[in-house]
Amino acid sequence: MIEFDLSRTLTHPPDRVLHALADAPRHPEWMPGVRGIRTADDGASWTEERVRFGRVMTEDYRVEEQTGDRLVLAVEGDEDAARRGSWRFDYRAEETPEGTRLSLRGSGEGLGTVGRVAGRFLVEPFRRAVAEDLEALEEWLGR
């Protein structure tokens, strides 16, 4: 299993931050590299096509849990995706005087032998990519 943690402070209320993260149809407006979203009828799952790490990846997302201070996303990457396997992104939002302290625990498994060995080296690029997403979200929410 590969795991990473990331925390950022965003200057917006927790409900607005978590809603934006779960609002897949609006991801192309702010998330770098998103080329398309296909949402399911249930509103809690979607397929995202995105350019990341110089490649086009298709990933299936499903909301596992969404409360006032937590959003958990399960992600299945396709065989060509850099995030092949099963990933779980557990976001926790805490209201602060500055806005929201957003903490993320990311974990991946089922990556195959090469993914498990190379995974140690992929943690930092994933962490940086998610940090870039959160910076883009902060800018978009401020418009």
Give a topology summary.
Blueprint: E1 2-10, H1 14-22, H2 27-30, E2 34-39, E3 45-52, E4 55-66, E5 70-77, E6 85-96, E7 99-109, H3 112-141
Antiparallel strand pairs: 1-7, 2-3, 3-4, 4-5, 5-6, 6-7
Radius of gyration: 15 Å
String of helices and strands:
EHHEEEEEEH
| Spatial strand sequence of the major β-sheet | 1-7-6-5-4-3-2
The CATH homologous superfamily is termed START domain
CATH architecture annotation: 2-Layer Sandwich
| Fraction of residues in β-strands | over 45%
Question: How is this structure best described in words?
Answer:
30% of the residues lie in helices and 46% in strands. The model has no long low-confidence stretch (mean pLDDT 88). The protein has three helices and seven strands. It has one domain: Alpha-D-Glucose-1,6-Bisphosphate, Chain A, domain 4 (2-Layer Sandwich). The protein is an alpha+beta fold. The protein has a seven-stranded antiparallel β-sheet, covered by helices on one side. It has helices spanning 14-22, 27-30, 112-141; strands at 2-10, 34-39, 45-52, 55-66, 70-77, 85-96, 99-109.
